[in-house]
Design brief:
The protein is of the alpha/beta class and about 350 residues long. About 50% of the residues lie in helices and about 15% in strands. It has 14 helices and nine strands.
Length: about 350
């Protein structure tokens, strides 16, 4: 499996544009001249959670209480999750997720791995080797906090898993969606079965939905080649714990990518975005979804989350190497990436 992991890493590296980290000094003026969104103090040297309380938006709550309240927010918005994302991003989340897919290299990587599997199968036939080999996925993808399947479906389509489901046997590529909220998973699996039918679940096992907490995932060590989390890390109670568990479930040489709202680098844009976030988004939530409070929390949770540099530091502390980030839309969101060391 090490060989395939190394192959995945080489392909992904060639398919992904790299962004050199900004030095703290290069954007310090932006952070000092703007409001709370751009002036967050870098607290990467401190544990994300220390003591009995943490933040739920701008509110201080007990650690045990936060998980339940976040769960309630997403139960409230589960059926309208895509609408919620449209509100939060003015529709840009679709472009950002497409760009995340491109950065993973899943499309070209899958083609290469499927060719390799076909060649191996043909070779076994020609050698008349009747020895059965244990079926093991060549590419295992985990999408955390992806309950409704928005990111996972992009992976399934890019890897052509639906087309592969017309053949017999387990797919060489599989995608697992893990989410703490059973209502989000219900919506996601229902959407998946309507979109792809049941073959991906029951025959090729290319797609599955699993309930689990990002802080202590229900998977064995060294299980996945790729771990993604989109707009979910900021809702985790203890980000440091989630990063450590991400490292645990990745195979040596495996890759972590986090797409998350971040710290806007352009001051005029940050001012406009602040106005939109606090004065428009909660009102839209109230009018369209009859739920102002959930949307107010989501806006506040963005402001309380890590800056780009702080998340880089936390990922390195967790044990990732090659950590970098790429800003999108002037830093409204950022993709952070890192690799699990081969000798881990």
């Amino acid at each position: 499996m090490m060989a395939s992991t190394s192959l995945c890493r080489r392909i992904a590296t060639t398919c992904t544009r790299r962004t050199t980290l900004r030095s703290p000094s290069s954007s310090v003026s932006s952070r000092l001249t703007f409001s709370s969104f751009a002036t967050k103090e870098n607290t990467a040297s401190s544990p994300y959670v220390s003591g009995p309380t943490t933040h739920f938006g701008y509110e201080s709550v007990s650690i045990n209480e936060k998980e339940g309240r976040v769960r309630q927010v997403f139960e409230n918005v589960a059926n309208d999750y895509d609408v919620m994302n449209d509100f939060m991003s003015a529709g840009l989340h679709r472009y950002w997720k497409d760009e995340l897919l491109r950065m993973t290299g899943v499309g070209p990587m899958s083609k290469a791995l499927r060719r390799r599997a076909s060649m191996k199968y043909a070779s076994n036939l020609n050698s008349n080797d009747d020895k059965e080999e244990k079926e093991e996925a060549l590419l295992s993808i985990l999408d955390v906090a992806g309950g409704t399947g928005d990111v996972a479906f992009r992976f399934v389509d890019a890897a052509e898993c639906e087309e592969r489901s017309r053949s017999s046997g387990k797919d060489e590529i599989n995608v697992t969606v893990c989410d703490i909220n059973p209502e989000m998973l219900r919506v996601g699996e229902s959407r998946a079965r309507k979109r792809y039918g049941s073959a991906l679940f029951d025959d090729t096992c290319a797609l599955k939905f699993v309930e689990g907490n990002a802080q202590y995932l229900p998977f064995k060590d060294n299980s996945f080649d790729l771990y993604t989390i989109a707009f979910g890390l900021r809702n985790v109670t203890d980000v440091d714990m989630a990063l450590r568990d991400a490292l645990r479930v990745l195979k040596p040489g495996g890759r972590f990518l986090c797409l998350e709202f971040s710290c806007v680098q352009n001051v005029p844009l940050a001012q406009l975005y602040d106005i939109y976030s606090f004065h428009v988004i909660p009102k839209l939530g109230e009018v369209v979804a009859n739920d102002r409070e959930s949307y107010q929390y989501l806006v506040e949770s963005i402001r309380k989350f890590c800056t780009q540099e702080e998340l880089v530091s936390r990922m390195k502390t967790a044990g990732f190497e090659g950590v970098k980030y790429t800003n999108m839309t002037q830093g409204i969101v950022a993709v952070h990436e890192g690799w699990k060391p081969l000798n881990f």
